[in-house]
């Protein structure tokens, strides 16, 4: 009985390490599938550039900031280019209008 406890403990530790190794490998494989950068982008600067030509720049920056915070990406340019950031392009308001400028 005294030998059984260390064996069971060693088994649990090895299973835990195996689980961590598999989780790390799956995380590195998902990098190739994910199209969004892992590091946090500068939403303020990106949204300021996106909203420069807007007729309502404060409203545009607020909506863009919300979308950027959720998606961690902002399409380049002042309008369009939504194909570069699918999450940003697919967000809608409660009235099913496009949320992100």
Task: Give the helix proportion (percent range).
Answer: 55-70%
Taking all residues together, what is the mean pLDDT? 82
Query: Which class best fits the helix and strand makeup?
Result: mainly alpha
Q: Tell me the span between the first and last alpha carbons.
A: 67 Å
SS field, number of helical segments: 4
Signal peptide: 1-23
InterPro entries: GASA
Protein name: Snakin-2
Family: Belongs to the GASA family.
Describe the structure.
This protein is mostly helical and 101 residues long. Helix content is 57%, strand content 0%. It is built from 4 helices and no strands. It has helices at 4-33, 43-50, 57-71, 86-90. Helix 2 crosses helix 3. The relative contact order is 0.11. Residues 29-34 have low confidence and may be disordered.
């Amino acid at each position: 009985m005294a030998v059984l406890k260390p064996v069971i403990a060693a088994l649990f530790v090895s299973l835990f390490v195996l689980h961590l190794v598999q989780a790390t490998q799956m995380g590195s494989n998902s990098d190739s599938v994910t199209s969004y950068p892992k590091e946090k982008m500068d939403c303020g600067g990106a949204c300021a550039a996106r909203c420069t030509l807007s007729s309502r720049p404060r409203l545009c920056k607020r909506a863009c900031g919300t979308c950027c915070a959720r998606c961690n990406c902002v399409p380049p340019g002042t309008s369009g280019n939504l194909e570069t950031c699918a999450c940003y392009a697919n967000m809608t308001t409660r009235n099913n209008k496009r949320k992100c400028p």
